[in-house]
Amino acid sequence: MGHTTTSPPVTVIGLGPMGRAIAGAFLAAGHPTTVWNRTADKAGDLLTRGATWADGPQAALQASELTVVCVVDADAVEAVLDRALAESDHRRLPATTLVNLTSEAPRRTRELALRVDGLGMAYLDGAIMTPAAVIGTETTRILYSGPAALLDRHRPTLAALGGAAVHLGADPGRAATFDVALLNLFWTSITGLMHSFALAARQEVPATALAPHAQQMAQLMADLLPALAAEIDGGSFSGEGSAALTSVAASLEHIVHALDETEVPSAVTRAAKEVVDAAVAAGHGGDAPVRLAEFLSRGAAAGQPPARSGAA
Ligand SMILES: NC(=O)c1ccc[n+]([C@@H]2O[C@H](COP(=O)([O-])OP(=O)(O)OC[C@H]3O[C@@H](n4cnc5c(N)ncnc54)[C@H](OP(=O)(O)O)[C@@H]3O)[C@@H](O)[C@H]2O)c1
Questions:
Q1: pLDDT digits 0-9 by tens, 255-267
Q2: What's the whole-model pTM score?
Q3: 157 lines ligand 1 (CB under 6 A)
Q4: Is 10-170 in CATH node 3.40.50.720?
Q5: 42 lines ligand 1 (CB under 6 A)
Q6: Whose C-alpha lies nearest to ligand 1, atom 46?
Q7: How confident is the model over 120-138, as pLDDT tens digits?
Q8: Which of 11, 13, 18 to mutate to test the pocket of ligand 1 (most atoms within 8 A of CB)?
Q9: Which atom of ligand 1 is closest in space to residue 102's alpha carbon?
Q10: Taking Cα atoms as reference points, which of 294, 290, 248 lies closest to residue 273?
Q11: Whether the Cβ atoms of residue 16 and residue 70 lie closer than 8 Å to each other
């Protein structure tokens, strides 16, 4: 990426692995970059590369029209804001833009957005969907939510982070909603995959022997995904040609037996089976697995025994 002397200044608060990658990408793109982190020694390499150290969070916010904060969670963001306020005479923060790339739950993110707004700053939330190592490359994928105009104004600067900057909507909690939904998919899938490798290993099947078949299954799921989503949004749960939930329950039952026989802990599969069993008990045994999305979306009520089976 080319350096220009006109690149706008930017501040990065939080220098964990992700914050360091972000600050490094801004520096590489030629942005005068101010950094601050609770633990100062993490800035070392960035300072060598030309970053400016701020004496505290207030000075860091003051240094640029755009500040990216990337710390462990919303409590840490609040701790940074509290410290900035303590350093400020005015009990308000500089009227600049805070782009929060910290992962957090949606409701907590909305609370934080309100607080930042009340402190006189503009707030944009972002969820980073790719690892620190690829920040600044085309692989980066960041989902933003909050005022679209704010993202548009800062797009040229945020482009230094690379890849796609996708705007999801005005609700500041929307990026966090996508984040937790996608990470739930990722980590439950990874846990399931590791569980399967463990089951295979107990039967002398190496992971590399199972891998090509597991890859085909993952591909099948990826291929089916758009059609399943359309069925859910269209309220169609009969799943023409798909396995019925009673059949899924039977399949999970024999997987649990296989795990128990080989003494591989079966908690992961039992948890999936519990969800399917509850849906069957609620009268959805003849429906396709897409019914589970609607069933679970009823919230806590989905875990309760049904008052009457057969509800549509
Ligand atoms: N790393 C990745 O590949 C990746 C990928 C996607 C999303 N993310 C998200 O990016 C965010 C940052 O992740 P990370 O990998 O850089 O490391 P992290 O361990 O999640 O966060 C470390 C940062 O949080 C700061 N921090 C923690 N508690 C604090 C407090 N009470 N007050 C002020 N600062 C505090 C740390 O400061 P000190 O140095 O002083 O401890 C450090 O700057 C997280 O929300 C993470 O989920 C990370």
A1: 999 999 999 999 9
A2: 0.90
A3: no
A4: yes
A5: yes
A6: 103
A7: 999 999 999 999 999 999 9
A8: 18
A9: 45
A10: 248
A11: yes
Count of residues making up the chain: 312
Residue 22's closest CA among 178, 159, 152, 221? 159
| Domain 206-303: CATH class, spelled out | mainly alpha
Please indicate whether residue 81, judged by its CB atom, sits closer than 6 Å to ligand 1.
Answer: no
> Start-end ranges of CATH 3.40.50.720 in the chain?
10-170
Output the residue whose Cα is nearest ligand 1's atom 24.
71
103 lines ligand 1 (CB under 6 A): yes
Residue range(s) occupied by CATH 1.10.1040.10 in the chain? 206-303
What does the pLDDT average to over 57-77?
97
